[in-house]
Design goal:
- This protein is mainly alpha-helical.
- Helices cover 97% and strands 0% of the residues.
- It is built from one helix and no strands.
- The longest helix has 66 residues, at 2-67.
- The chain starts with a helix and ends with a helix.
């Protein structure tokens, strides 16, 4: 009785470890896909946002100069 429950425990532990490893591998792979797909979009959008903010600041400073 003890022998069979010990085998079940060891077997379930090994299956759990293998499932955890598979989960980690899949997560790393998915993160790589997300990074490859989204990072270029994110950097392009940040560049556009920075350009827009710089343009707004430039226009505001021109308006202040005209007001003086």
């Amino acid at each position: 009785m003890l022998h069979s429950s010990l085998n079940i425990f060891i077997g379930s532990t090994l299956v759990g470890i293998l499932l955890d490893l598979l989960n980690v591998i899949l997560e790393i792979h998915l993160l790589g896909i997300i990074r490859d797909c989204c990072f270029p979009l994110l950097t392009r959008n940040m560049f556009c946002l920075n350009h827009y903010i710089a343009r707004v600041i430039h226009i505001q400073s021109e308006e202040k100069n005209l007001a003086i």
